[in-house]
Amino acid sequence: MALTKVQRRARIKSRVRTVVSGTAERPRLSVYRSNKQIYVQVIDDLQGTTLLAVSSSDKGIAETSGTKTEKAAMVGKAVAEKALAAGITEVVFDRGGNLYHGRVKQLADAAREGGLKF
User: pTM above the 0.85 mark?
Assistant: First the structure.
């Protein structure tokens, strides 16, 4: 029997997470994409803590008009600004089982333009 979309994505996500892990020096930039919003967390996996988080439902981003892809780029810039203010310059990118395409790619490109290295 074929896998459902959710089961397939969970399998891909677990494969990615066996390789990608964040440390205090190089935390994990985790992306979660729902149908309407996009969420990003910077996580230290050794401590098990979220260092910072940004989403498209945050005050400044949600009030602006634009497509979901444009808002994903805004989230990428915002997470880069917050990370640099917190002293984080390098991260490990975790696409969360999503394809590196569309909103996820826009977010990653904007974070790179904002100054994050990955």
Answer: yes
